[in-house]
Amino acid sequence: MNHQPFEDWLLEEAPLDRKQKLELEVHLRTCSYCNALAESGKALGTVKRVSPAAGFSARFQSRLGRQRAMDRRRRFWGSLAFTLGGLVMLMWLAGPYLAAFLASPATWITVLTQWMVYLFTTLRAIGEAGFVVLDILPGFLSPLTWMILISAVAGMVLLWSVSIWRLAQRNVPQGV
After folding, report:
1. Where are the domains of the chain?
2. Residues 138-160: pLDDT tens digits?
């Protein structure tokens, strides 16, 4: 059974037109859930409302301010403890290797030089292989295939751009 419009009518307490009132009365006769909801709404409506004690708002605001300050302080100290714990663990695990590495300047200068030579030669080899592929590839594919591939890539880029734009628009606050 669909309770949604009846629940909305009962909880909003907005004025209903004649047709809605009739539908609600018929539904309340057959639905115990909505009937209980209507009775609890009536009971809550008859309860005497008491205004808060003097100074409630000021006490609440000060307690809220203290709570937020305490939360900020707790997050700061927790983050600091987590970071320091992580650094201690990292130093404990990497300490022996780091000590051996820094013990002799010749060792780390040699390792650094080897790494830079490796990086340079790897990038050079990738570049040369890329130029060879770019020289050979146009002969393998027809112009129509190239047009289809370029169109597909352009379509994916357009789809990606629109998705990012829509995601950014969804997260923009719309006002107060």
Report:
1. 1-46, 71-103
2. 888 888 998 999 999 999 999 99
